[in-house]
Amino acid sequence: MATLSKRYSIKAKDYLRAGEISIEVQGILKRIGFDAQLIRRVCICAYEAEMNVVMHGGDGTLHLFLDNDAIGLVVKDSGPGIENIALAMQEGYSTASEEAREMGFGAGMGLPNIKKNSDRLKIDSQRGRGTVVAISFEVKGRAGEQE
Ligand SMILES: Nc1ncnc2c1ncn2[C@@H]1O[C@H](COP(=O)(O)OP(=O)(O)OP(=O)(O)O)[C@@H](O)[C@H]1O
Ligand SMILES: [Mg+2]
Fold first, then answer.
1. Contact 45/13 with Cβ under 8 angstroms?
2. How many CB atoms are located within 10 Å of the residue 64 CB?
């Protein structure tokens, strides 16, 4: 049975290293031999969720786990939380800071993109209590053997 579990930490406001985790996740999934299209979807979601922690969250973690029929990402942070999740899910809604917008972020497309590219998305958040974003992907057929 191919199982894997890896946890990475994410630092709030660390724009310099932002995005590195999704590149690592991509490398792991490639080595295992998942379908390229599936890897692309997972990486888009990992990147958007990672960036949201950097931009809006507090420090946090990204947890990648694999089993035979699913790939999961659980991204948690101890930031301010999301007051209105339905609003946050709308395309174009963003509370990104001036600093983030100057770097080209803040289109309000991250969460909608995660929704579009994943098979399941669940957001748990309360104002002042941080955020947990759980994302999963079905794995159809067999992935290559794990190293
Ligand atoms: N981890 C988080 N903590 C607190 N608020 C969040 C978090 N993730 C998302 N949000 C809120 O949801 C809004 C929408 O997020 P989304 O990723 O769709 O857009 P964005 O991050 O603002 O812009 P983009 O992702 O296009 O650069 C954010 O602007 C923010 O208000
Ligand atoms: Mg975003």
1. no
2. 22
- What digits encode the pLDDT tens for the residues 128-140? 999 999 999 999 8
Question: Which residue has a Cα nearest atom 3 of ligand 1?
Answer: 57
What lies within 8 Å, CB to CB, of 88 at 6+ separation is 82, 111, 123
- Per-domain residue ranges of the chain: 4-138
| CA 6 – CA 72 distance, rounded (Å) | 11
- Is the pTM for the entire model greater than 0.85? yes
In 10 A of CB 121, how many CB atoms?
18
**pLDDT tens readout for residues 14-24:** 999 999 999 99
CATH 3.30.565.10 fits 4-138, yes or no: yes
If you measure from the C-alpha of residue 29 to the centroid of ligand 2, how many angstroms do you get, rounded to a whole number? 23
Residues with CB under 6 A from ligand 1: 48, 52-53, 55-57, 77, 79-82, 88, 93-96, 105-112, 131
